[in-house]
Fold this sequence. Notes:
By secondary structure, the protein is mainly beta. Helices cover 11% and strands 43% of the residues. It has three helices and 13 strands, in the order ββββββαββββββαβα. It has helices at residues 64-69, 159-164, 182-190, and strands spanning 8-18, 21-27, 40-43, 46-49, 52-54, 57-62, 80-85, 104-114, 117-123, 135-138, 141-149, 152-157, 175-180.
Amino acid sequence: MFTGIIEHVGTIRAISPNGGEAVLEVDIGPLIEGVRIGDSIATDGVCLTVETIDASVVRFSASGETMRKTILGGYQPGRAVNLERALRMGDRLGGHLVAGHVDGVGRLLERRREGGSERFTILLPDSVAVVEKGSVAINGISLTTWDCRGQRCSIAVIPHTLTVTTLGTLRPGDPVNLEQDLIGRWVERLFPGRG
Length: 195
């Protein structure tokens, strides 16, 4: 489990496709402190398992399902990625509960300044449902939804978040990993069609 509060922006060092799957090498910088083989690290919202460690570079394998459901397949060496280590019991939950299991790929439709913040409008795939003033993880970042209409929703991004995550580099048309709120997912599953 994760919180959607990004700890560090790392860098893809290498990505090697392997028959629909892939192996990624990511420089996780200062997050390496205390990381062990077998640990989970959310990489742009995708829960990946550390397989090897070499200085500050860790290696992950991504399954075919992960490659089909996320934007990892479009990554190239040098790409910046949002990183968060798994939540420990007793840690603060500053964002919302995030599993690191991407529900689908959305697209940034529009980005515009509103005061000191920016409004991002996201096109949601059919596999992702959000509610007004609910939570959604976009590339692993916990954000609050508003102006939810059909397959679109907006999020307000404060200057701090634009600076310490990769959101500041997104442009209209860019794809994003989306994970809907875990609690909302279960409510929707238990009471379909009541939204």
